[in-house]
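Chapter summary example.
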Amino acid sequence: MWRHRFATDTWNWEIPSGIAEPDEDLAVAAAREVLEETGYRVDPRKLEHLAYNQPVGGMSNAEHTVFLARDAVRVADPVDTHEADRIEWRSLDHIQQMIDDRQIVAGVAVTGLLQLLAR
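The structure predicted for these 119 residues follows.
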């Protein structure tokens, strides 16, 4: 997703992400966020765990879990239209260069994508 981040006044590529509701299964939350932000449906039972991290360990209690979704199916327009200026599929062959070129900078996206590339 191509997004503008107001705090840094920058545009970058990101992966869909969001916050799980209290007591919501993390895979179910991830599938819900993908649908809301992109209009693609993924099966939470088929999500593959890629990474867990604490982006600012010792300074906050934030926790990030990243999943890999396969076989996404476009079923609707995104509900959260404020989330991205555009949504595109990007080849894994370009991901490392996009990270190197600072086109992907969000910690959760970099962590998950690097884990995927390492596999």
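To summarize the output: The helical segments are 26-38, 95-100, 107-118.
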